[in-house]
Amino acid sequence: MKLVKIIKTGLIFSVLFNTLLAHANGEAPIKILVGFAAGGVTDIVARLFADKLRVEFNEPVIVENKPGAGSRLANQALKASPPDGKTFLISPNSGPVFLDILYPRSVLGYDLLTDLTPVAALTTYPLGMVVQRSMGVNNAREYVAWAKAHPKEAVFGSAGAGSHTHFAGMKLAQAAQINLQVVPYRGNGLINIDLLGGQLPAAIMAASDFMKHKDDPSLRIIGIFGERRSPLAPDVPTFTEQGIKATAGDAWIGMWTSAKAPQAEIDRMQRALQKILAEPEFKQKLESKLTMTPFFRSAADMKKLQRAELDMWRPVIKQSGFSPDQ
User: Fold this and answer.
1) CB 309 within 8 A of CB 96
2) Are 37 and 69 within 8 A, CB to CB?
3) Would you say 305 and 282 are in contact if contact means Cβ atoms under 8 Å apart?
4) Alpha carbon distance 158, 325 (integer Å)
5) How many whole angstroms separate alpha carbon 99 and alpha carbon 108?
6) Please, are residues 221 and 129 in contact by the beta-carbon 8 Å criterion?
7) What is the per-residue DSSP string for 182-223?
8) Residue 19 has pLDDT above 60, yes or no
9) What pTM does this model have?
10) By CB distance 3.0 to 4.6 Å, which of 44, 89, 147, 197 could disulfide with 154?
11) What is the C-alpha to C-alpha distance for residues 109 and 131, in angstroms, rounded to an integer?
């Protein structure tokens, strides 16, 4: 929380200082777009990298927030950016990937595979499920039994409809052959309020949120959706090891740029990001403050990862019957 307050307090000063510096040097600053409001987790990650890149390049680096339309506005701005390799996007994988599945090109205003290009994957973190202890549920199998016995109460909270946590719940429902209904919230803050107040029986959340509840006497973390246990939550079993093949993969944050950007600028940024992520102090900050781990993947490997996720999630989303117009 202290880190969040520091970043929020310094937001205006940072933007003004680096913009003035760019003008003074007669050069355009490196711009990092974020499709969410200032102060959120993605914004904080972007500002941590911006601070390090500023030193690495000895150039001004600014973060520009373009919240709205599920991050489509930021993606559209990236496509429309000048072809000089000065504009980048930092986003969770669910932003570009799920939007590409949910919306036609005419609505998106860009083509993920031809207008945007990966630069590097940056961080990763697990998704987990939290339930009320009052339900008498101690693990994933018991939760499935409870959901079958209480179909009208089998709902879970998710930070937004069409999000990674939403479709992780759909994966669980399909794997366990149960009916689950999502209750979309505008952010995890409201989910936490209803969980702690007992109004919400369950929620699927990112590690930075579900780990807040690990010692809460009224809540229990029953499983994570990764293929293996996470070092960030080593005591929490996966759904798979509990006999339920509800693997939704870990969430991750990456950087994209315009497909028009010069390859030399993409390579330069990729090398800088790899160097930053290898720093022990930076790794410790990600783990202790944001419950994330470094996850450097080259542009080529990130492109493969992106395609694999598109292939994995298309049938899940289609089978769920979810429409963004719901």
Assistant:
1) no
2) no
3) no
4) 17
5) 8
6) yes
7) EEE-SSHHHHHHHHHHT--SEEEEEHHHHGGGTT-TTEEEEE
8) no
9) 0.86
10) 147
11) 39
Amino acid in the structure at residue 96? P
Q: In angstroms, what CA-CA distances link 34 with 3, 100, 255? A: 18, 17, 10
* Token reading at 69: 């339309």
* 170-219 residue pLDDT tens: 999 999 999 999 999 987 888 999 999 999 999 999 999 999 999 999 99
**CATH number, domain 127-242:** 3.40.190.10
The CATH code for residues 2-125+251-320 is 3.40.190.150
Ranges for all domains in the chain classified under CATH 3.40.190.10: 127-242
Could you give the CA distance from residue 68 to residue 311 in angstroms, rounded to a whole number? Answer: 26
One-letter identity of residue 107: V
Among 149, 145, 146, 165, CA closest to 157: 165
The better pLDDT of the pair 12, 74 is held by 74
Give the containing element (helix H, strand E) for 320. helix 299-320
Spatial separation of the C-alpha atoms in residues 165 and 42, rounded to whole Å: 15
Tens of pLDDT, residues 242-286? 999 999 889 999 999 999 999 999 999 999 999 999 999 999 999
Q: Determine the Cα–Cα distance for residues 196 and 259; give it in Å rounded to an integer.
A: 45
The answer to whether the CB of 176 falls within 8 A of the CB of 152 is no
Reading phi first (left if > 0) and then psi (alpha if -120 to 50, else beta), residue 162 is in: left
Residues carrying CATH 3.40.190.150, the chain:
2-125+251-320
Q: Compute CA 64 distance to the chain's CA centroid, rounded to the nearest angstrom.
A: 18
Which tokens belong to 131?
């339930």
